[in-house]
Amino acid sequence: MASSAISATPTPSFIANQKDLRRFGFCSTSQFSIHKCKKSAIPIKIMSVMTPQQSERRSATTGSVKTALTLTEKILARASEKPQLSPGENVWVNVDILMTHDVGGPGSIGIFKKEFGENAKVWNREKLLIIPDHYIFTSDERANRNVDILRDFCTEQNIKYFYDIKDLSNFKVNPDYKGVCHVALAQEGHCRPGEVLLGTDSHTCTAGAFGQFATGIGHTDAGFVMGTGKLLLKVPPTLRFVMDGEMPDYLLAKDLILQIIGEISVSGATYKAMEFTGTTVESLTMEERMTLCNMVVEAGGKNGVVPADSTTFKYLEDKTSMGYEPVYSDEKASFLSEYRFDVSKLEPLVAKPHLPDNRALARECKDVKIDRVYIGSCTGGKTEDFLAAAKVFQASGKKVKVPTFLVPATQKVWMDVYTLLVPGSGGKTCSQIFEEAGCDTPASPSCGACLGGPKDIFARMNEPMVCVSTTNRNFPGRMGHSEGQIYLASPYTAAASALTGYVTDPREFLQ
Ligand code: SF4
């Protein structure tokens, strides 16, 4: 692989127009370099802060595969029982897990029944997972009916993993109910290295944190997978993101992925795999790796992937008894491009309305007055996200200046918020710290207002407000009102902003 300063060369296929080209302009704070690989020629001037070399990686196991492949290619080769394959090739892949939920499920079930017959059985009752999570705590009849459709189907098909909720008045009396699918999948041990996991949700890519191929698919594809356990997939080329350097203690993985999306734009990884490596990535917890992979789809990525390591294996220890076989990119694997970041030089970021690549330093937005803060979702509603927010509130000793809504992703996260002690707090739980800071009481676990939804969904933006949110999308109308303005941020930045009523760099409270 050539490591070179890049000169002006032909426009790569993913830069579609002048607007995209503008998005590739570098800001003065860029800590970024790009390495041209033999398959690509990218017209970007380097403002390079070179980083230490990537730490030594374990050699890959290729099984019957003889040519050098990336991690993603290797999973798809094995899943399609082919000794070799190349990006752009269409292959029939055996699916390990198919996940669907209350928004994607009914349509997929309808297609399955239409195409395979009213009395057809799904290909594997233990590999189809059904997780109601989106519009749960609502009186909206159509939303409730969607969950009823899932329940009837699971009964009919004797589905093993249906995380049902029947009593909406108290989620705690529903032991099967989990909450947001992507976090529940990990917590329940359904994410395993080397496997193929598909889901009727664009953020299914979250599971790539476990070193597996995970991507979102539509209803038609899901209906087909329900009947056959297979899907025809085009092999994506891989972009490699190498992040090295010590992570400053005011940054979180959300800042890293906002940095990357800001650099490559919302179309910069269209139908490409995004592989994350480097010493910083190796130091991240599984939940932080999930945040990283969760947002690859905001850059158009087909999937994101972090090579499995001891952190992965330890996380899985008490979650699954099923065997799995991790795979790794071969040393001579061909990457479309390689991007390098020195994480030690990055600063807390936000994505301003109305695109996830509308990156700005949090401190550059200090004059933006906000109306509310939202901490939740598959991106920013995990246990560690709440611990991070609590750390900022505890460090400040102050009260929030705007309504601050907390929506734990799952029932387990909710329990953690009420039971785990926050390090350095003198024995307080997150919930105690949130109460002292004047936050809203943590809500029932679900997707909440991340996707707007029916008007009575908790914390939905029913007015044209300005919100700092730990979610993943800031498109117009995403959290409810079409004129709402959403600033995407890490839990640190969200908590700091709640304390001032303005978009705020968390260093104001953490240093
Ligand atoms: S939390 Fe938001 S982004 Fe995640 S699955 Fe739910 S609606 Fe989608």
UniProtKB/TrEMBL annotation:
<dbReference type="InterPro" id="IPR015931">
    <property type="entry name" value="Acnase/IPM_dHydase_lsu_aba_1/3"/>
</dbReference>
<keyword id="KW-0004">4Fe-4S</keyword>
<dbReference type="GO" id="GO:0003861">
    <property type="term" value="F:3-isopropylmalate dehydratase activity"/>
</dbReference>
<dbReference type="InterPro" id="IPR001030">
    <property type="entry name" value="Acoase/IPM_deHydtase_lsu_aba"/>
</dbReference>
<keyword id="KW-0479">Metal-binding</keyword>
<dbReference type="GO" id="GO:0043436">
    <property type="term" value="P:oxoacid metabolic process"/>
</dbReference>
<protein>
    <recommendedName>
        <fullName>Aconitase/3-isopropylmalate dehydratase large subunit alpha/beta/alpha domain-containing protein</fullName>
    </recommendedName>
</protein>
<dbReference type="GO" id="GO:0046872">
    <property type="term" value="F:metal ion binding"/>
</dbReference>
<keyword id="KW-0456">Lyase</keyword>
<feature type="domain" description="Aconitase/3-isopropylmalate dehydratase large subunit alpha/beta/alpha">
    <location>
        <begin position="87"/>
        <end position="359"/>
    </location>
</feature>
<dbReference type="InterPro" id="IPR006251">
    <property type="entry name" value="Homoacnase/IPMdehydase_lsu"/>
</dbReference>
<dbReference type="InterPro" id="IPR050067">
    <property type="entry name" value="IPM_dehydratase_rel_enz"/>
</dbReference>
<feature type="domain" description="Aconitase/3-isopropylmalate dehydratase large subunit alpha/beta/alpha">
    <location>
        <begin position="363"/>
        <end position="501"/>
    </location>
</feature>
<keyword id="KW-0411">Iron-sulfur</keyword>
<keyword id="KW-0408">Iron</keyword>
<dbReference type="InterPro" id="IPR033941">
    <property type="entry name" value="IPMI_cat"/>
</dbReference>
<dbReference type="InterPro" id="IPR036008">
    <property type="entry name" value="Aconitase_4Fe-4S_dom"/>
</dbReference>
<dbReference type="GO" id="GO:0051539">
    <property type="term" value="F:4 iron, 4 sulfur cluster binding"/>
</dbReference>
<dbReference type="GO" id="GO:0008652">
    <property type="term" value="P:amino acid biosynthetic process"/>
</dbReference>
<dbReference type="Pfam" id="PF00330">
    <property type="entry name" value="Aconitase"/>
</dbReference>
